[in-house]
Amino acid sequence: MDHSYSNTKPHQKGKHLTLNDRTTIQELHSKGYSNRAIARELNCSPSTVGYELKRGTVSVYRYKAVEGQSTYELHRSECGRKSLFLRRHKFIDYVSHCFHNRGWSLDACVGYALAKGIFQKDQVVSTKTLYNYVDLGLM
């Protein structure tokens, strides 16, 4: 699809705003520039500017670049896929107990937990994943 009618310069997908970009938004917004005019300066979408203004607005009409940056960093620290090891810790503890105290194999622990209904299928990690955890030294 050709976007020859677009008035913005090419913006690299996945590029995040920097503190300098946020400072530019703060300065231009305080001078009364529209989101579209600010976006032209930064070579990004006007909606990106709008989202950033909403993210970094401290009071009713005051945008602070530092507040936008700190909110961005907080959101980035919480993003990403969480490990099954952390999400399925109850099952991991159960397997560790059976493995060390009862002398069961990892496969036997998984099979017994599913057969007896101790854990639901979505609460269990596969035997291969358990062996990967052992190899990584997590168990």
Describe this structure in words.
With 139 residues, the chain is an all-alpha fold. The chain folds into 2 domains: 19-78; 84-136. The chain has 8 helices and no strands. It has helices spanning 19-30, 35-42, 46-56, 65-78, 84-87, 89-102, 106-115, 127-136. Helix 2 crosses helix 3 (46-56) and helix 3 (46-56) packs across helix 4 (65-78). The longest helix has 14 residues, at 65-78. The model has no long low-confidence stretch (mean pLDDT 83).
Shape by Cα distribution: rod-shaped
N/C terminus separation: 51 Å
Strand % is: under 5%
Number of domain units: 2
How many runs of DSSP E, i.e. beta strands? 0
Q: Please compute the radius of gyration using only Cα atoms.
A: 25 Å
Mean pLDDT: 83
What is the helix/strand order? HHHHHHHH
Strand and helix layout:
Layout: H1 19-30, H2 35-42, H3 46-56, H4 65-78, H5 84-87, H6 89-102, H7 106-115, H8 127-136
Characterize this entry briefly:
By secondary structure, this protein is an all-alpha fold. It has helices spanning 19-30, 35-42, 46-56, 65-78, 84-87, 89-102, 106-115, 127-136. It has two domains: 19-78; 84-136.
